[in-house]
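Job type: complex structure
Entries:
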Amino acid sequence: MSNTTTLTLRINDEDVTVAFPTHHTLLEVLREECRLTGTKHGCELGECGTCTVLVDGKPMLSCLVLAAEMDGHEIRTVEGMMIGNTLHPLQQAFADLGAAQCGYCTPGILMAAEALLEANPDPTREQIQEALAGNLCRCTGYIKILEAVEWAAATQRGEDTPPAKESIYGSPHAATKGE
Amino acid sequence: MQTSETTIKVGYGDNFKEIKVILPAGDIPPYQPEDKLELIGKSPNRADAFAKVTGRAKYTYDQQLPGMIFGRILRSPHANADIKNIDLTEAKAMPGVRAALSYVDVFGRSAIRYAGQGIAAIAADTEQQAEDALAAIRVDYDVLPFCVTKEASMKDTAPQVGRGDQENVVPARRRRGGRGPSVEEVDAALKSAETVIEETFNTQVQTHSPLETHGVVCDWNGVDLVCYASTQATFGVQREMTSGRGSVKAASAKVLGEFVGGGFGSKFSAGSEGVACALLAKDAGKPVHLMLDRREEQTDAGNRPDAKQNIKLGLNKDGEIVAYKVKNWGTPGSGGGGAGANNDSIYNLGLKHKEELTVRTNCGGARALRAPGWPQGVFALESIMDMAAEKAGVDPIDFRRKHDSHPIRIAQYGIARERSEWDTKRNVVAGSGKGTVKTGLGIGSSLWFQRGGRGAAVRVVIHKNGVVDVRNGAQDIGTGTRTIIGMCAAEELGIDMSNVRTFIGNTDDPRGPGSGGSTTAPTLTPAARLAGFRAKEALLAVVAEAKGWKAEELDLQTAQVVRKDGAALPEKLSFNDACGLMVEDNIDITEDRRPNYDGFTGTNAGVQIAEVEVDTETGQVRVKKITAVSDCGKVINAKLAESQVRGGVIGGVGYGLFERRIMDRGEGRMVNANLESYKVVGMADCPEIDVVFLDVYMGHNNTNVMGLGEPPKVATAAAIANAVYNATGARVTSLPITPRRVLEALARKEKRG
């Protein structure tokens, strides 16, 4: 049988003592031992970005690190993103702009975006694309994700810049533009 | 209730007409242009947005049931082989193993026809134990020669892919419909044409690559089989688990798919992995979690077939198409399913003839992929349309209009032309731009045909406290079904979405369709609207009874009971207070989807224009912008409709430039069964996508809704290919348009001078 490691992990500002098979990845331990299933399996090979979490504020693919290496590190997952009972500006922007479609890639993208905005509160479109280049999405077409990150960044800077609206037109009876 | 004849307005913009339709018994007339709608056409957030942005949304992969164990599948390393014997004895004795089965026993299948085909499955306490036990399964193979490309499979000396008398190359099943002209008639028309253009186009195999892989979690709870499934057909999986296939034959099965991480056509069936999981769970007496890994997903969960398409197009001296002849070859892998390419519709193409051949190869089988048959066919059709327009000396849009009679598309050309700045940005002479990095514009069109249909129902429950539940058992694979059924009921009840709870993905709720062919929205929204309308009637009857008012004079608007004539009521009564007047616990209405009736057209149109930048030194193509003019009947939720279009477009960009399954011809395996070297579009590749909707009062059903999932994917790659030609003057006739192919096309052009 495999060896077991017992560690106190610091996850979302809480100390959690867990015993887990030593060879298990952080992804597996977060999901199976800690029951934090917001962090998703996508490929387990570091290709899709779906399992992105923050380790000491930096985005990390949790499928590529062992939980046993996490002693003394601060881990954040999507479950730790809300501020009290309020959505984080990134979460709110993703909800309001429809940046989550099937939603499976969303937690990983939110994590990578949070790390970006911590490091750079006013990123350019290109900097956002670069920061999120490792996160694949098969549904949305990405644009609303980019706009949501821009909007959340502006909100965090205290600016009030309304996001782009849906471009519905072509008929006097056309659907009205987004609210 | 009786059917009733009524006059409705159908159309869009200044193109409306009145038609008489027979409304089905118990139905209500469709939305009309003069209706004042509070919610429909607006952009409320997804009903599940909160769950999705907080990580609370539980997908099948996320299910963790008490005592749950894990299933894994042994797969063939050989592309063509017969299994002589499988011995599970040693594997069953491995630590933690609770159940094991052989696919030969379960599916009666000893022929291995592609690398990655399932052979046996094991459930053990941990995934690692299951993996270890797979290695202890002894399989004796009779290994056979194989072919993994159409070209190899079509040779006289090619190894047989199938078994028995199955031939490698077979004519595709003929499509229904009237008999067209004979091949002799079309040949004669081509012979007498002023000009004949001929070209052969090749497209690749594309995989679905949903971010959540396929799989199920099965639990026999003593009463029935509970099956969490990452599926686009909850009721289809229920059928599989209760009848026939793979001998699961549960007395009853409850299928749950509250959240599904994408599907794109590959997740209709529970698959052999689903059947194996159910049987392992039964045998083990424990819930089993069996999700495919990414490699399995890429090799054994379906794909869009490739296509080779030879087209001859004849023009008369007036530049009109008089004849069109097609020969197609496509491979559905080792299965016998369809691999056709839809390359002979959309336009009026004169006398047409089409021959289609299906070529079996030792590769994983095809499944529907977002507009099956269309992106490959339209790439060829639109390429040759462009070649013909050039030959005729006519602007490509004008040439298409001349051969197009779709009442919606003819308006969309103008919108697309304007929004894409076609007349200023496009090169009148292809490849005439200065410098080494050249830009160009190209066009492609689409056609779709989904009006939804019967066999579904929606349940609306108004609770005494004013909370409204809207329920259907079908799934929401990311399309927004959960949101739009809530909106259609809420619109009738005059309330916003804040007090509406929507429930989806549970076969205990009323029946719904599989999410394929873009059927879900046009099937479910009319039932949701009708159930909302009947629930309103019931609530107003309660109000009338309690207050001594006349129910037929009342309506619900902006969360208030109002008089239809606008006059004041004796007292103000909110929706919530009205609900509080109920004597019974709730109002509970289920309404069936009524049949379709006449409407504006039976089809959606769609026009896309691509703007690209081509580096003629490196061959790199960058898509700068896609103008996507779309229609789906009446837009229910603008934000979600737009999201569907962007998703289809981005899939089309990937298909046009990056994605392709690569088979190792020596080993017979898929080389890039991952997400690293199987390239889907990433954040940095994403172009600007200008989504424009023509809002059409389509008729056919009470919401005027047509399906939208598939149409936006149809034309994108075709438009990109034409834009690359417009930028460079060199035509790439194979997808994906890789730098190498661009450079080769440029070299051929140079050689010709």
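Summary: Confidence is low (pLDDT under 50) at residues 166-179 of chain A. Chain A touches chain B through 73 residues (CB under 8 Å).
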